[in-house]
């Protein structure tokens, strides 16, 4: 039971077991900076295009509809790069070598082996369709949710502090992982990490998951994902806002 999990539970773990908790870490650590740079850049470019289309000033406020369109575009732009990072991360986390040990020394070795054994298309881009199905609506929610949350908590003097940025970013990060987006992510991960030919499509993955695990299989891991989302995206948005303010100054 979860209530029985204590520090003593971890103490008997040897070095190899502790190390296994961090499998695939290099892929998101190396990739998230690139991915969010692409995402924020694409979102900003799309918003500028929408403003320029009807002659508004570059800093004119965007409507929720415009932020949704710009967010969807940002999701589509960074989806191929995110696919590669998440494919490598997923394989690193689920594959086992001899004796249950990780088959790769690090994420780069995993990437090279996937290309060597399965080719670029299947090795790195298996599940690309499901990646797009998740990314586009997810980021279409992400950026508007941040702006709406920021406006809702805007103090009377109109000054946005880092605390407000953190809170609005955490809300946006949580909103973008709510079902059905999370359910799509579960299916995407299954497609990316399963043996070749296991699933024909995201619909096939959904049917097989429900048949073997019930509908709860589509929600597995939702709680930890939501708990992780708030602090992660709080720091992402606050970091972005503060960096941009510094550059503009």
Would you give an account of this structure?
One of its GO terms (cellular component) is mitochondrial membrane. Belongs to the mitochondrial carrier (TC 2.A.29) family. With 249 residues, this protein is mostly helical. It has one domain: Mitochondrial carrier domain (Mitochondrial carrier fold, Alpha/alpha barrel). The protein has helices at 7-10, 15-20, 26-53, 64-94, 107-125, 128-152, 162-175, 181-193, 202-213, 222-248. α6 (128-152) runs antiparallel to α7, α7 packs across α10 (222-248) and α8 (181-193) crosses α9. The model is unreliable at 1-10 (pLDDT under 50).
Set down the secondary structure blueprint:
Elements: H1 7-10, H2 15-20, H3 26-53, H4 64-94, H5 107-125, H6 128-152, H7 162-175, H8 181-193, H9 202-213, H10 222-248
Characteristics:
Mitochondrial carrier fold; transmembrane transporter activity; transport; disordered N terminus; transmembrane; 10 helices; 72% helix; 249 residues; elongated; mainly alpha
- Give unreliable regions as ranges: 1-10
Q: Count of DSSP helices?
A: 10
**Overall tally of domains:** 1
Tell me the number of strands.
Answer: 0
Assembly state here? single chain
Strand content: under 5%
Overall spatial form: elongated
Radius of gyration: 20 Å
What is the CATH architecture term?
Answer: Alpha/alpha barrel
Fill in the CATH topology: Mitochondrial carrier fold
The whole-number mean of residue pLDDT values reads: 86
Distance between the termini: 53 Å
Helix content: over 70%
CATH superfamily membership: Mitochondrial carrier domain
SSE string, helices as H and strands as E? HHHHHHHHHH
Helices and strands: which structural class? mainly alpha
Sheet having the most strands: none
InterPro entries: MCP_dom_sf, MCP_transmembrane, Mitochondrial_Carrier
Membrane topology: Multi-pass membrane protein
GO molecular function: transmembrane transporter activity
Pfam families: Mito_carr
């Amino acid at each position: 039971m979860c209530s029985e999990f204590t520090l003593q539970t971890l103490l008997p773990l040897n070095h190899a077991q502790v190390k296994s908790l961090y499998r695939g870490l290099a892929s998101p650590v190396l990739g998230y900076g690139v991915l969010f740079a692409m995402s924020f850049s694409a979102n900003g470019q799309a918003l500028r295009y929408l403003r320029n289309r009807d002659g508004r000033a570059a800093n004119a406020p965007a409507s929720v509809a415009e932020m949704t369109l710009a967010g969807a575009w940002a999701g589509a732009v960074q989806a191929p790069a995110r696919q590669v990072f998440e494919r490598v991360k997923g394989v690193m986390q689920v594959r086992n070598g001899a004796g249950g040990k990780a088959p790769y020394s690090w994420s780069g070795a995993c990437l090279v082996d996937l290309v060597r054994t399965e080719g670029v298309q299947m090795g790195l881009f298996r599940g690309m369709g499901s990646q797009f199905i998740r990314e586009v609506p997810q980021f279409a929610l992400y950026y508007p949710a941040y702006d709406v949350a920021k406006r809702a908590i805007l103090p009377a003097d109109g000054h946005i502090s880092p605390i407000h940025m953190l809170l609005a970013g955490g809300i946006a990060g949580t909103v973008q992982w709510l079902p059905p987006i999370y359910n799509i992510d579960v299916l995407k991960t299954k497609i990316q990490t399963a043996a070749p030919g296991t699933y024909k499509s995201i619909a096939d993955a959904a049917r097989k998951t429900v048949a073997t695990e019930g509908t709860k299989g589509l929600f597995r891991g939702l709680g930890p994902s939501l708990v992780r989302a708030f602090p992660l995206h709080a720091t992402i948005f606050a970091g972005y806002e503060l960096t941009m303010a510094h550059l503009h100054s």
